[in-house]
Amino acid sequence: MNAQPIQAIAIGASAGAVQALLRILPALPADFPLPVLIVVHVPPDRSNALVALFQSKCPLPVREAEDKEPIAAGTIYFAPSDYHLLVEADRSLALSWDEPVNHSRPAIDVLLQSAADAYGPALAGIVLTGANHDGAAGLAAVADAGGFAIAQEPAEAQVATMPAAALAACPSASAMTLDDIIFYLLTLATT
Amino acid sequence: MQGQMQAGVEDIEIQLLLEALYQRYHYDFRHYARASIKRRLVQARGQLGFASFSAMQDHLLHDPATLPRLLNYLTVQVSEMFRDPSYFRALREKVIPHLRTYPSLKVWVAGCSNGEELYSLSILFREEGLDQRTLFYATDINPDALQAAEAGVYPLDQIRKFTENHQQSGARSSLSDYYTADYGRAVFDKGLRSQVVFSDHSLVTDAVFAEMHLISCRNVLIYFDRDLQDRALGLFRDSLTRKGFLGLGSKESLRFSSHAPSFADFVREEKIYQRREP
Fold first, then answer.
1. Are both B15 and B152 inside the same structural domain?
2. Which residues are catalytic (chain A) (predicted)?
3. CB–CB of B223 and A144 under 8 A?
4. Neighbours of B40 (CB within 10 A)
């Protein structure tokens, strides 16, 4: 389906995010070659505890995204709380304090749309469990740019609203269970 | 793949639009972080009703009335008073004791937008008894934002958040001492701006204009690319007095800048730096 190999993964998740990501991220081996960029909706006033949580569970290095940082292979980046995370055309990370999108900052649409611009067909975008519609427009942008679009199978998601909205906005997206998503990601490691 | 080709065309259009904005009006966004600029331009295109960036460029070149409308999308930042209260607490507890030793002070709020940070600092300096000896400079490139900053009027529904932030900053007074409520708006005491110079100044194209003891420039540099960040940081270095202070946003740092050696960490976790001896 994709002529060009996938070079980056972008994931968005909201309600139920931690449990879903605890399945996916620890399953990626230490030699997983691709960067994984993640937006999780977290309250703005709380310091982002996700990095510390996942650092202790993942073979891959886990970091909070920094502004202007070049994206490193085989690294998991979380958006900091209260900042949008974007990807620049030169494949460095950028943060912004623009207004919330879909009532969220960071917003999944902002990550997916900018990553789709930067990576085009070389991006896999994934929308997981959540109770809102953030990520739907972003996933459609991933598919429009020729990238590979995935939404968590809504029946399996802890909260179905977000992946269902993503599938509605992006009919070409694949609905996958977490096991399917892990299997797919592991195939990217071998190609 | 049509989406991809479309994206390529759009990127060309954005480049040309920013070039037109610069050549025609001398507003230079060419070295702003492009991903954010693109989001803002997409928003402007939709809300101003243009079919394409090229159509927007046509209007911009031939109808100057388009400029302020576009500028508001490109520059205006919604902010909060005492945003990141821990930053203001660090200024109060760690920086103010140093500033107290000077007979007169100059403070620059660079990229002041609608003035939330300016008023926060003005209140803080009054609480600390330094207001009479301090001159503030509040600068921005957007004339509408400068006007809003000078007016000092904010929606009343934001005041609760402002008040919470203020209290957490180690307040020595009540925020309500500084504004009057009026038809859903909070109008801030004009005494807070009696020692403020509001001025058009661009970190991209303008130069040093005074010697500062404190520069606060938060969540402005993240919108610049690295070259432009470097220019702005060089300008800050050259504007600061010996051992003057620079405060950046919580996710901004000097790490990637060639000017990093000119500054020492002062309160590392709050991104407050001190100019080293030259």
1. no
2. 14, 41, 134
3. no
4. 20
- The DSSP H or E segment spanning B179 is strand B179-182
Residues B50 and B89 in one domain: no
Work out the pLDDT band at A44, boundaries 50, 70, 90.
Answer: confident
- Domain shared by B35 and B89, yes or no: no
Extents of the domains making up chain A = 8-190
Give per-residue burial for B138-151: e unless 16+ CB within 10 Å, then b: bbbbbeebbebbbe
Query: Quick one: B38 and B162 in the same domain?
Result: no
Report residue A79 as tokens.
């958006």
A156 CA: distance to closest CA in chain B (Å): 31
Residue numbers of the domain that contains B48: 2-75
Closest residue of chain A to B164, computed from CA coordinates? A45
> In this predicted model, what pLDDT tens digit does every residue of A46-83 receive, in sequence order?
667 899 999 999 999 999 999 999 999 999 999 999 99
Q: Strand runs (DSSP E) across B69-110, as ranges? A: 105-110
Nearest-angstrom CA–CA distance, B55 and B52: 5
Q: How far is B253 from chain A (nearest CA, A)?
A: 9
pTM for this entry: 0.91
Whether A96 sits among the annotated catalytic residues: the reply is: no
- CA-CA distances (angstroms) from residue B67 to A60, A109, B41, B44, B73? 47, 28, 13, 12, 10
Residue type, position A35, single letter: P
**Yes or no: domain A8-190 corresponds to CATH 3.40.50.10490:** no
pLDDT in tens, B8-43: 899 999 999 999 999 999 999 999 999 999 999 999
Q: pLDDT-based confidence at A2, cuts 50/70/90?
A: very low
Question: For residue B277, what pLDDT is reported?
Answer: 81
- Chain B CB contacts of A86 under 8 Å are 33, 35-36, 39
Percentage of residues of chain B with pLDDT beyond 90: 91
